[in-house]
Every structure is written in C-alpha cells, then in structure tokens.
Amino acid sequence: MEEYMKMFIENTSFYNEIVLPKKLCILLPHFLSSWLRTTLCAFVIYPTASFFCLDFWKRYVSSSKETMPSKRAMVSQVVGALTSIPINTLFSTVFEWMIENGWTRCYPRISDVGWQSYVLHTLTYLFAVEFGIYWAHRLLHEIKPIYKYIHAPHHCYSKEIALSPFAGWSGHPLDGAILETPYGLILMFMPIHFTTLLVLFLVEAVWGVIIHDRSDAKGWLIMGSNYHTIHHTSGHHNYGNYTILMDWLFGTLRHPKSTANDYNTHL
Asked: CA 58 to CA 215: how far, in whole Å?
C-alpha cells in the first residue's frame, strides 16, 4: 500500500509539473499544487470545449436572434461557470488526496491487474457512476430546499433559446461538486486505474459543455444534448449522465420527437 501511495504522489507531481513551473510545485504544498493544476486546466477546458461546439456556433451565426441565446445571457453563463470552477476543482482534488492517502481502491499501473481486469473495472466503475450521478441529479430536483438554493441557478436557463455550451458549467458552486461526488464515493468500493480516472474527469468536463449545445445528437442510448435540452425545459426528465439507461430503468425518460421513432425501432 505504501508503495502505491508513493506512486500516486509521483503521478500527480508529474502532472502538476506539466501545468505549473517546477519551482512553484516545490514551494507549494502538494495539495495546493494539485488544486492549482486542476483549476488552471478547467479554466482552459471550459472555453475551449464551448467554442468547439461548432454546430451551435454555425446555428448562432445563421439563425435569427429570436431562436438563440442573447450575448447577455451567455456572458451571465460564463460568469456563473468561472466563479464555480475553483469549488468544483477543490472536490476533484480531494478525491486525488483520498487516493494518495490510501482511502480508495485505485491502482497506479494497468500491469497490476492485467488488461482484462482493467477493462472490466473501467466498465463497472462507469456503470456505478452513471447510477450515482442519475440519483444525485434527480435528488437535486426532488429535495426542494436543495433545488431552490443549489440547483435552481443552473436551471434559470429553462427555455431552449437560453441554452448554450457556456451554460454547462454555470450554476451554484456546490451544484457541480455534488454531481461529482459519485466519482469519489465509488472510488472507495470499486477499483479503477488512476490515470484512467483523471481522463474520465476530463471527459466528464467536456461532456458537461457539449450536452448544452442544443444539437440534434444521434446515437441510441446516448444522453445527447437533444435529451438534455428536454431536461432543462421540463425539469422532471432525463437526469442521466452519459446514457438514457437509468432514466429508462427508473421511469423518467422522455425522448425527443426526432429520435422517438428511432428508439421504437430498437425495442
């Protein structure tokens, strides 16, 4: 275990020094260096992912202003996101700290378990996270005080024309942190490769942006932006993260009209 803990710290130190000057990493406590690295990355990923939602920007240029969010709304979304980032990254840094201190079942090398187990661990972990985020998201809606004070700021963009990629990270600072929590809690019970976990955090961050771009994403089982737009406009459907599976299992799924026929052909 001590060898693993040392390897985790070496891994995070290596990633810290990719983003931050080595002298600064030596000067600062390790936890603070990791938080700074994660926060700076988030400040880059958020606008980059938003501007790479090319379908949205194509429609923004070619469509009438009445069908697209105003500049004022998008500026508000950016401000809401940027003020939330340091809190959200604090939670993911705590997850790294848990790993480095032996509180989780993470492992540093794929060779420790073999490729077959690695794939099984990753898929099982993703399924558990999908379940966890579905219920965390649903409870954010169903527990009224929590919705009012924490999740409602994100849902102030309840009309389709108000949604943009910038809305993905915008909201109360604790909102994104609560939705991150399943990633950390499940680490204590399920094994996952450490670097793979960091990649999943990156994918999750980008996904949170692109499901707000209102594009007519195709792909059965995928919780694309067409499904997530319904979540914003109805407030009571499509709580899932990457897939529609949990919504289907627990009776909260609503299909976009454009994909309902495609779905029926799969049944």
From this structure: 11
CB within 8 A of 129, min separation 6: which ones?
Answer: 182, 183, 186, 200, 241
> Tens of pLDDT along 44-91?
999 999 999 989 999 899 888 888 888 999 999 999 999 999 999 999
pLDDT in tens, 124-154: 999 999 999 999 999 999 999 999 999 999 9
CA distance linking residue 231 with residue 140, whole number of Å:
13
Rounded (10°) CA dihedral 118, 120, 126, 127:
-170
Name the one residue in this structure whose structure tokens are 């799924």: 253
For residues 16 and 177, what is the distance between their CA atoms, to the nearest angstrom? 21
Contact in structure between 190 and 124 (CB atoms under 8 Å): yes
Parallel/antiparallel/unpaired status of strands 192-193 and 106-107:
parallel
Q: What is the pTM of this model?
A: 0.91
Q: Is the dihedral of CA 237, 239, 241, 243 positive or negative?
A: negative
Q: Which residues pair with 193 in a beta bridge?
A: 107
Q: Give 207's strand partners.
A: none
